[in-house]
């Protein structure tokens, strides 16, 4: 170590500059090499948002609506009302912008209740005890206690937040009349922001338009299909670059939120069946129902878990794994994933009124995937790959492929059973022309 340091020192500034230039050149080359990959992934993300109503499009719609709601709230609060604290309005509008109208209304009411509680606590204690430190301690204690009320849900923390902002406004005011006006203005701004947020969410691309039970399942299955569709071409080419596999792993981690959204969509669809006022109109028939959706979501959730496990294994792929047998394994694995992609694509196009014909296509895709899995297992067993070594990826990936295939088969069986029950009860009506 000492000798190396001495040599570096004796080489002088020119050597240091040269080394630094080489390092900078290498970093620049790496950045240029990595940049196209990032831009390509961004392009694929935008293409998915444009192509189907999945997670990507929902994200863009929510961002756009939140931006519009915040801008409109700021205009009303700042330009029309000339409020002293106009930020309360856009903050409230964005906070209650949820993926469903039901959740927007629910969160708006909870948020209004939380803010009113916080402002009232501060106002009462402020006028009784004055704006000093002891008053702030009491305000914080009471507000945080009220915020634990379960009825307020996730908005419970806003009780203390509103109380602290109200206390700051109260302290900066010069007289009691001004304090009352400013505290009242906070409540007014929050009400305006919530109202604008709910209004935009209801009128502009209303989420109930695409958050039905089927669409929740389609969005989840489509994201799974997209992920598998990006993985198998790379495996076939042997492209196991770390940044790419890390991106797969991150995308697989987001599937959990899509499962939650699918469950929420199913819950909302069932709820709307019982509380929809249109059912009271004369001549309106009861909406169709498909009881197998809950089991289908459960099955797709297990598929998501297996994809998460598989992408983690691929991300941890040892760099020294190479050779013709390794490349052959990856090609066979890619063929299986390509067959599984066709199955998930069928799930992403699920339609209650075409389930009988879709089941036929689904079973054909499942049989083809089973053949690919059998070929993968047989060819791998004929190699010298260490399938029993837990420190090597081959045996782990084979187990995960088997679980993925089992879940796909189980999901098909669930659909078939549910279709049979619905047909026997007269609940399912086939409308497709076969």
Structural class: mainly alpha
Assign a percent range to the helix content: over 70%
Q: How far is the N terminus from the C terminus? A: 78 Å
Total beta strands = 0
* Average predicted confidence as pLDDT: 79
Helix count from the secondary structure assignment: 15
Strand portion: under 5%
State the shape: elongated
Radius of gyration: 29 Å
Low-confidence stretches: 1-35, 274-279, 283-287, 429-434
The helix/strand order is: HHHHHHHHHHHHHHH
Largest sheet: none
General description of the model:
Helices cover 77% and strands 0% of the residues. The protein is mostly helical. Helix 11 (255-275) packs antiparallel against helix 12. It starts with a helix and ends in a 9-residue tail after the last helix. The relative contact order is 0.08.
Top keywords for this entry?
434 residues, mainly alpha, 0% strand, elongated, disordered N terminus, disordered C terminus
In brief:
With 434 residues, this protein is an all-alpha fold. It is elongated, with a radius of gyration of 29 Å.
